[in-house]
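Two quick folds needed for the group meeting slides. Do the first one here.
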Amino acid sequence: MRLKVSPIKKPKHDGAVICVSWNNTEDVFSCGDDHKLIKWNLATNECMTIATFPDELYPTGLHLFPKINNSGKKSQTDFILIGSTDGKFHIVNYNGRIEKSINAHQGACLVALWSPNADGILTAGEDGCVKIWSCNGLLRSTVVESDVSCYMAAWSPDSNSILYTKRHHLIIHPLQAKSKITKWWAHESVILSVGWNASNNLIVSGDEDGYIKVWDTFQQLIFTTKEFVHPCTSISWSPHGDLFVAGSFNKLSLHSDDGWPNSSLDLDVGSVYCVAWSPDGTQLAAACADGHVIFAHIIDRTYNWKNFTCTQIGRKVIAIKDITTDESDQLDYPDSVVQIALGFDHLAVATIKQCFIHKLTSWNTPVTFDLKDGAVSVILLASRCMCIVERGRLSVFSYTGRLLASPQISSHSESRGRASISLGPDTLASVDHANPTLVHVYDLPTATYSISRGTGDNNVTKIKHHTVVCSLALSQTGPINERQIALLDRRRDLLVATVKDPKQKLSVLSRAVFSIMWSTESELLVGLKKEAIVCWAYQKNNTRPELTTTVISIPSSNMGHNPSIQCVENGVASIYRGKGSTVMHISLGVIHVEMVLKYIASNMWSEALQLCRTLKDTKLWGCLAEMALEKNQLDIAEEAFEEVHQYAEVFRIQHLKNIRNSSGNA
């Protein structure tokens, strides 16, 4: 994965460009020390000067009013917020006319940002003050007063908190009264740039010494790197939250969300003062000190599934190949490719206008349907359906392009990330954005289980946890009434529940787990722990610690920093090592365990018993014992528990059989 810069032409600004911001996927606004507001159209490769501001207006930042699904705010969507060195912020319309100028700070107004929910304005200045304003420019509160300049600030994704810098410190200040303020020493030098990820709630910061650090909101350091020789002057997360880009003197670097650099660009443009992503996350614009506004897009993203691999080799071109037959093809699309998903015998490609579903057996005859907004952030695939996240809205489609469900989710959910959603063959799970301790599980219509398209309360199961849920995963096999869900909370506890269980209870399966994934072929759950990969073949009985025969642990000390599981198929786990490079494939040694699970799922008890007798493996007998007892196969359970030397269970089963026989004789 790397950035490709469009050809750089003669600069249109007469001085340094200080700020850029996207209006849509084609229009970009820039402003600089020449007092000009310029609009760029990437479709026609034209630019025009919208306005020339007064000589005393030197911009420090530019932010367009956020595009949100709120008709009540529609009248304000054509306004631009500009901060300036004279301590003011200005509300400007798209024609360049200044509607309002507000005196905000003594000294320069270094930060001026609309809130993500379009309900307020955040400013920070050289005078050390951080203030909240209404959208009309009325002061609501002075959040911070300090004798130290605040160089950078940012809104939280839910608009309920702000993040600001104070020399070497990062500070999270909730806007609710009497809420706890979080402050920590983040860098050894002055912090110049910050960004708050709307998808996974991570924070990235850059300092004067060129260090870049990634944090969570609990002050834990995720990653640090000395990326630049010169100060890190700008940072910006992609709208999808899976990447961020950082700028410095004559350099741009692209990083994955865990901080590892994917690629870097050496430029000849001076310092990069501002970087901004397009709404679809496929392009970025950078404001440069020599008067250039440069544009770049991402290429060479690679996706793999079984024997298929596909690579985005251009903005509108994907190369796909079957490595077993060496058959390959090049797929061209009419618009820029936004998201790609490969799996379950299908390739799904979302552009800014349409979604294309290719069968891997016939690449050139895709199913096509139109998108509402074209801002697709996530595509999830399952065996029977696919889910698209478009501006926070969830839509589930069949592979024939038919809309199956559009669950109604909570407001302010534009930041819905991949970790907070999971798709099964007949269910969809989503963490409630407004209350992240709550998980909604929606039933989906399938060929064997028909429900209405509307997602009323009868088709929604709510799972409540006592702390924040960070990620979740639905099992991929079995009937809907046995569908299981695994959760990871912010303490890294792994919890499992059966969705349709009337006595639904979240049971702690393990602790200190970093990543989880279900096998696509059986009820095998795989998790990553420190220097180990752990497989749980049976998750429903975790109250007896002596029964560990259904847990398989594979030592592994080469998983890198902050690893995550991409998929589990054919007994092989594909693990992203977190080093911005490769995905490693590790055999779990669970082929026979999965065979037993498949036999039991198909009610083939004699075949499962014969396999265990042949291989004489304790893990197989343990799985068979637990599941036979659950399914009331007492004879098989008795033999299996005897093989794993759990004689207390053998005596209990014999007692149950005697009771059953006595009842039968009576």
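Then this one, please, same format:
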Amino acid sequence: MQELVTKVAVVTGAGSGMGRAMARRFAAEGMRVALADVDAEPLEETGRMIVEAGTAADDVLARLTDVASESEVDALADLVFDTWGQVDLLVNNAGVFVGGFLWERPAADLQFVLGPNLWGILHGIRAFVPRMIAQGTEGHIVNTVSAAGLLGTPYAGPYSISKFAAFAATEALASDLEAIGSPLKVTALCPGMVDTNIATRSERHRPPELATETTDDRAFVSDMLAEVTAQGIDPAAVAEMVVDAVRAERFVQLTHDMYVPALKERGEALAAGVLPARGEFGDAPA
């Protein structure tokens, strides 16, 4: 999809980090943008930033949305289609982090991380894609996966599980759309180290019914993640890559070339029937 002016973009997790950066970048391209996030104040702030940068207020929508909720994602889709009659770019970006050893993690931790990271994507696909297909026009779906959805990472089992599943969903979507001859294209955005607040804000979004005690392994990996992401690239740089990926119809968008050799080595290891080499956590994707 080359021309973005007046097209409609939907971005979940738009209240901070990569979601905010992508929403602002799409608006700068002349797109109308629908913003969704679970935090009201950051969501409103993103909308203000976009309007203050020159986008007409009528070209910005914002809706408080928990993407782990099917009904809330349905309501978001209804709002956007009722307002603008179309969606051309869907970015399923919202996500949280839960780390630690798998044998230490209660089921509630897995339920929490799978909510936005996997079900948020699946709800987005089901709520938006059928109507995007019915439009009969070109369009694009970007799912924020992670380099942790391509490469195994120590101490990050719950997160990696959610992201490997997110990649599988993204590949399945792309394959299905190709099978029916749809002009819609798909990108799996696989960021590495990006300067976001995922390590510090994730627990604030945990539903009370999924509360668990913090264990040493989970605290360790959260602290390490905060340190690593603080040294990461600017989310605005990721937004530029996403615009380029949409225009180039690129299926996988990495943010760091350093993962390419590891991906090749992983493929060779799996083909040989052996466990891929374990990366150092200091190099772990975020």
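Slide caption for protein two: The two ends are 28 Å apart (CA to CA).
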